[in-house]
């Protein structure tokens, strides 16, 4: 049984919900078709056809892994639904345009979220433009509906209510390590000991399989009071893949507080000289977490940066690879699997906490068997415990115990059976939200608020409050873990363990990809959400491949280097690549040295709901931004050169969230008070007549 395709129907379900919302009986769009009864019937026909397809989705999801024809049917259905959604979104956009332009009476007094009761009617030209496309889409959907019987798909009228369990308040305690007391003591002893031969530097490798708790052990020791007091300088850096000496050097300089913005322009040699000088004569502890590279010459070059430290300096290296541990140092600390007794202690802690085991003897009996099946891996134990901590029915525990997933060969997709069970237990709305997060690279600390805004922009979540609940639920299941210290105050950042990230990638079924890991042009045509790491060469060569991604919904530029911004972005990207991505719902261009945007860019990207151009050098926004009637979130923070906002900003009738903090040159935009849907305004401080003024909270 593959889990790789199951989320495809979860994303599909989300798209259908968006369509049903637009096609509500008393909704805006059906009212707009009242002058054209034939076209009104078309919309009703579309809705009924979609209903007929929706009721077999659950059965199709269950059968797709064992039936390639069902799998192919689901893929074709997703493409057809995407086409229908884009068509309906264009109609909705036209409705919003009519409202924003004030072409009908009493528009200013009506709700900004909906256009109902406005007696809006679309022009004949607009109808002619979409009629053929709408009829073709309905015909395709009808063909797919007629195949249901041949495929043996059954109707399933399950509850569509999305219930989210109350997140546990007792989340995983990173300092609470089960069954690692000996390893912890050995590691601390080695860190505090001085070499008998007077060596200045000692390397201490920690080796073990993924999910065994290597990083957790290193964290506990790194934050131990005796260790803190023993070393004058400490630094932690996650190396991960791919190995990049420049990135590692910058990261370590930032950790020890010796990096400044001028260092961005320095080459590798200059930065390594600075790092070496910063460490010379000091007793330091450096943790290099998640090391994969076994190239000895590259390791030797890196090691040479640390050899001038004071006697007793130490480096901890965590790795899954024995040969890396042997290459870097002697006497590795092996983090093996936990015993059955300790496994049960850990599992019980996270599944039966706040419940008296004596009152649930059957749960304890089944729980011990489940813990045994996790084969001593802490990550697997915590993931399954996160599922069961809110389940009191012993039959639900037995379902987990008896699942056929335990019997799958481990090489099937590289995913731990316990993690597959954890994923399969998620309700559909959490599956799609979790899978979406595969857009982030491994070991990248992602911002909770950004994730929620992206979910909203893509119709996975309706409200920020609901998105926050979903996020906390995923965290309570140990799928997300909080970064202990964020470089940005008041910004909550999280990570996914490498194995959890692998799970999300498999679950996304190529709907979410990272451009650097792209498997080919076919994948680009299939995917809906793409991220890429910001580079230094203008990005055109990297992004020109997106010409084939006409259905792309999310384009996320990720800055993996803290404090690394104002990077060049080719004008060819702005003028030739982005305008072709007309289906985009979310676009991030943060940290680029963008001074201006093409004036007609947003005329092409009219379906945008999330736009982030923070940390850029932009001086003013193009007037065309005012035609983004769907836009809900606009991020302009730290645009130091931004002087004013377009006068017709009030046309952004769905704008809920606006950030303009650290925009010292921005003049007081009085017209912001006309943004009737605005709920959150961050950084509302402006210069007005030479005096400082704060407004709009």
UniProtKB/TrEMBL annotation:
GO terms for biological process: defense response to virus. It comes from Solanum tuberosum (Potato). GO terms for molecular function: ADP binding; ATP binding. Residues 439-504 form the Disease resistance protein winged helix domain. Residues 11-105 form the Disease resistance N-terminal domain. Keywords: ATP-binding, Coiled coil, Leucine-rich repeat, Nucleotide-binding, Plant defense, Repeat. The keyword Phosphoprotein does not apply. Residues 43-101, 127-154 form a coiled coil. Signal peptide: none annotated. PANTHER family: DISEASE RESISTANCE RPP13-LIKE PROTEIN 1, PLANT BROAD-SPECTRUM MILDEW RESISTANCE PROTEIN RPW8. Belongs to the disease resistance NB-LRR family. This is Disease resistance protein R3a. It comes from the Eukaryota. Residues 575-681 form the Disease resistance R13L4/SHOC-2-like LRR domain. Residues 183-355 form the NB-ARC domain. Gene3D superfamilies: 1.20.5.4130, Helical domain of apoptotic protease-activating factors (1.10.8.430), P-loop containing nucleotide triphosphate hydrolases (3.40.50.300), Ribonuclease Inhibitor (3.80.10.10), Winged helix-like DNA-binding domain superfamily/Winged helix DNA-binding domain (1.10.10.10).
């Amino acid at each position: 049984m593959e889990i790789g395709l199951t989320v495809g129907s979860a994303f599909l379900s989300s798209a259908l919900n968006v369509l049903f919302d637009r096609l509500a009986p008393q909704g805006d769009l059906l009212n707009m078709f009242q002058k054209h009864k034939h076209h009104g019937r078309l919309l009703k026909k579309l809705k009924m056809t979609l209903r007929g397809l929706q009721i077999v989705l659950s059965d199709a999801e269950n059968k797709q892994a064992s039936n390639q024809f069902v799998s192919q049917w689901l893929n074709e259905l997703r493409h057809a639904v995407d086409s229908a959604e884009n068509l309906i979104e264009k109609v909705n956009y036209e409705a919003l345009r009519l409202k924003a332009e004030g072409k009908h009476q009493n528009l200013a007094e009506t709700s900004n979220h909906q256009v109902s009761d406005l007696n809006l009617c679309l022009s004949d030209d607009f109808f002619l433009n979409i009629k053929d496309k709408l009829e073709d889409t309905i015909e395709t959907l009808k063909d797919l509906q007629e195949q249901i019987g041949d495929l043996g798909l059954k109707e399933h009228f399950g509850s569509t209510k999305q219930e989210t369990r109350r997140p546990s308040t007792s989340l995983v305690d990173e300092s609470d390590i089960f069954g690692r007391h000996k390893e912890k003591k050995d590691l601390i002893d080695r860190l505090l000991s001085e070499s008998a031969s007077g060596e200045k530097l000692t390397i201490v490798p920690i080796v073990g399989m993924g999910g065994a708790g290597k990083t957790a052990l290193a964290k506990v020791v790194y934050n131990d009071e005796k260790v803190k007091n023993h070393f004058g300088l400490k630094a932690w850096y996650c190396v991960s893949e791919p190995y990049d000496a420049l990135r590692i050097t910058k990261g370590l300089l930032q950790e020890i507080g010796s990096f400044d913005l001028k260092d961005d322009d320095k080459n590798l040699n200059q930065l390594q000289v600075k790092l070496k000088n910063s460490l010379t004569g000091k007793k330091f502890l450096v943790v290099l977490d998640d090391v994969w590279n076994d190239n000895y010459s590259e390791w030797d070059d890196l090691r040479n940066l640390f050899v001038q430290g004071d006697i007793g300096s130490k480096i901890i290296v965590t790795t899954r690879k024995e040969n890396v541990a042997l290459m870097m140092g002697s006497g590795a600390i092996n983090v093996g699997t936990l015993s059955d007794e300790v496994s049960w202690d850990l599992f019980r802690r996270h599944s039966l906490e706040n419940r008296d085991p004596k009152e649930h003897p059957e749960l304890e009996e089944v729980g011990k068997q489940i813990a045994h099946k996790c084969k001593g891996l802490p990550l697997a134990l915590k993931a399954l415990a996160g599922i069961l901590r809110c389940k009191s029915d012993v039959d639900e525990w037995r379902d987990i115990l008896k699942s056929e997933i335990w019997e799958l060969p481990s090489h099937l997709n590289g995913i731990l059976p316990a993690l597959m069970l954890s994923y399969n237990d998620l309700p559909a709305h959490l599956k799609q939200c979790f899978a979406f997060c595969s857009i982030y690279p491994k070991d990248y600390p992602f911002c909770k608020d950004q994730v929620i805004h992206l979910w909203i922009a893509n119709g996975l979540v309706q409200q920020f409050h609901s998105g926050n609940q979903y996020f906390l639920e995923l965290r309570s299941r140990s799928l997300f873990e909080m970064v202990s210290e964020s470089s940005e105050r008041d910004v909550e950042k999280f990570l996914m363990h490498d194995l959890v990230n692998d799970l999300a990638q498999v679950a996304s079924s190529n709907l979410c990809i990272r451009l650097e890991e792209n498997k080919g042009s076919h994948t680009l045509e299939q995917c809906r959400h793409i991220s890429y790491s910001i580079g230094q060469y203008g990005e055109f060569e990297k992004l020109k491949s997106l010409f084939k991604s006409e259905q792309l919904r999310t384009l996320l530029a990720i800055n993996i280097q803290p404090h690394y911004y104002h990077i060049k972005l080719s004008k060819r990207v702005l003028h030739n690549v982005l305008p072709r991505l007309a289906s985009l719902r979310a676009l991030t261009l943060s940290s680029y040295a963008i001074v201006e945007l093409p004036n007609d860019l947003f005329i092409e990207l009219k379906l945008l709901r999330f736009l982030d151009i923070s940390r850029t050098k932009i001086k003013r926004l193009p007037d065309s931004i005012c035609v983004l009637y769907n836009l809900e979130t606009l991020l302009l923070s730290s645009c130091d050169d931004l002087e004013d906002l377009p006068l017709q900003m009030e046309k952004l009738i769905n704008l809920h969230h606006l950030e303009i903090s650290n925009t010292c040159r921005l003049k007081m935009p009085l017209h912001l008070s006309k943004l009737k849907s605005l709920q959150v305004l961050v950084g509302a401080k402006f210069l007005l007549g030479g005096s400082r003024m704060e407004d709009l909270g």
